[in-house]
Amino acid sequence: MKQTFLSFCVFFLVPLFLFSQTNIFSTNALAEKILLGNYNPADYAALQPTTRIPAVLAADIEARISPDSLKSYIFRLSQFGTRNTGSDTLSATKGIGASRRWVHQQFETFSAANSNRLVVSYLQFDTAICTVGRHRNIFAVLPGANPANNGVILVEGHIDSRCNVVCDTACLAEGVEDNATGTALVMELARVMAQYEFQHSIVFLVTIGEEQGLIGADAFADYVQQKEIPLRAVLNNDVIGGIICGQTSSAPSCPGLNNIDSTSVRLFSSGGFNSKHKQLARFIKLEYQENVFATTAVPMNVRIMSPEDRTGRGGDHIPFRKLNYAAMRFTSANEHGDASNGPNYTDRQHTAADVLGVDTDGNGTIDSFFVDFNYLTRNAVINANAAAVAARGVPAPPDFTATRSGSILTVNFNPPLDTNTVRVALRSTTNDWDTVYAVTGGASASFPCNPTGGLSVSLASVDYWQAESLFGVEKNVTTSATQEAVGTEDERNIRLFQNRPNPFDEATWISFWVENMPAYREAMVQISDMQGKVIERIPVKLQQGMNETLYTHGYGVRGTFVYTLLVDGAVVDGREMIFAN
Fold first, then answer.
1. Fold (topology level) of 486-579
2. Least-confidence region, from 317-326, 372-381, 493-502, 546-555
3. CA-CA distance, 457 to 371, in Å (whole number)?
4. Are strands 231-237 and 327-332 parallel, antiparallel or unpaired?
5. I need a surface site. Which of 45, 84, 90, 474 has the fewest CB within 10 A?
6. What burial class does residue 190 get, using C-beta atoms within 10 Å of its C-beta: 0-12 exposed, 13-18 middle, 19+ buried?
7. What pairs with residue 155 in β-bridges?
């Protein structure tokens, strides 16, 4: 994954990169036609009907995803020596060119094994990266069964690797954890899911140029926008197979050197309240809990993180988010390093030591692996299940109104005509939904809720087989101003909510509601310890409705803090929050 601070430093010092891609096109015109919905779905019909019951389909997919296949892809990717974006493009055995041709060939092989149902292409574009001017992402499209209601779900991972120096093509950067694991996951999903039929199309994308500034993802996001491709969701996988914690790790991450975590995965996404990106992460977790968790051999803890990425880091979901496509990132719970690469840096990430494993008995065969292939398999299942449900083409959720009277929440909506069923999600103090209800046979429903504090509500439509659409906008249901607001007459319209999540590990969202805009000069959120020492002041710009700011405390501290909203130096409200690493 990209190390933001280091890469930005290189950008300013060396004129190796341009920040715009030109001549962006799909090398396979048929792939583009499918993305635009211009095809006959009968040409890509599945030979066997795809089960419509979400949990049954999830179990079937889970049984087909193979740790041995994932291991074989990663082993082959490690043999290309380096996959730096600026490395050899002509060699048949080494460098980025050979590796991306191999991925393209594998996609074609998967397609041939499934009645040519995958349409494989490069996305070619021109820009200067490490003295190389022309580049190619690799992608395979599984056409949807309903081009009249065209939609696209994207699963991605970057193939390029690097050592400390961003354009060092001599270093043997095998890049196993970062990010042969993500590439292998995308490839395995293409192999397994090619036999199924979904209403929407699914794209399996392998990008280049991530380590030089998310350039390959930028190109694909620009291509989608320029062609007006109806992209519904982006699932990015980066550093997704390792389970060993390094000496350093970008917060919020793992507790210390050699800690092992093979049952947790982190979901990063932008925003807090009414963020389509957080809603996508919540959807992914919900689908895992409802379709996989109860029957899988090793259940996973799916953790929805507050920030868009680890501190000072970035990934290929960000270019899509910037263009307002719902996008998120999967990353393993433990990372071996923060890519700082200083003089005392001993971790593997962004070094030649990011390899498959070690030969502990000296017989010439790796017998101790840094990647847990069963863990990677479980993360692939989470991806596949979410993509499969998102690609079902369930109609968008209806609009709704919500009111709160004491401890009762009432939601009114126009029920979907086909199934007359919706899901209603309630969220209060965390990044997760507190409860998700199913409502059938009506246009109104009431639920118990806390009488005070912030409460967010969102809806999804449900199909005949009880699968959800992606959830729509969150609406905040406020209490009366007299319940929570203090301060001057002008400030009674401003209500400060409990931070989310609380307790929190490294970052938390602080939100407040402005009913009517006051006249003011400056506003800020002030963070203090329990002794009154000011830790940080965060300037905020007031706007009518919900206001949010992300407070990043840092990692490795425990305790209770106070956050206060100040308007022109006067205290509007204050609350306590708990930092719990």
1. Immunoglobulin-like (2.60.40)
2. 546-555
3. 39
4. parallel
5. 90
6. buried
7. 204, 235
Is the pLDDT confidence value at 258 over 70?
A: yes
Q: How confident is the model over 547-566, as pLDDT tens digits?
A: 889 888 766 667 898 999 99
Residue 580 has pLDDT above 50, yes or no: yes
Q: What is the mean pLDDT of residues 479-497?
A: 53
Bridge-based pairing state of the strands 119-129 and 22-26? antiparallel
Across the range 346-355, mean pLDDT stands at 95
Phi, psi of 514 (to 5 degrees): -110, 110
Query: Cα-Cα-Cα-Cα dihedral of 77, 80, 86, 89, to 10°?
Result: -110
How far apart are alpha carbons 192 and 522 in whole angstroms? Answer: 55
pLDDT of residue 416: 78
Q: Which fold has domain 400-476?
A: Immunoglobulin-like (2.60.40)
What would be the CATH architecture of the domain defined by 2-390? 3-Layer(aba) Sandwich (3.40)
Question: For the residues 322-334, what does the mean pLDDT come to?
Answer: 97
In angstroms, rounded to a whole number, what is the distance separating the alpha carbons of residues 351 and 353?
5
Q: Give domain limits for the chain.
A: 2-390, 400-476, 486-579
Nearest Cα neighbor of 490 from 564, 570, 563 is 570
Residue 446 class from Cβ within 10 Å (0-12 exposed, 13-18 middle, 19+ buried)?
Answer: exposed
Nearest to 496, CA basis, from 414, 384, 577, 417: 577
Q: Can you read off the two tokens belonging to residue 68?
A: 């041995």
DSSP secondary structure letter of residue 49: P
Q: Say whether 486-579 and 2-390 share the same fold.
A: no
What is the token pair recorded at 526?
């002030």
The more confident residue out of 65 and 485 is 65
DSSP state of 501: S
| pLDDT of residue 320 exceeding 70 | yes
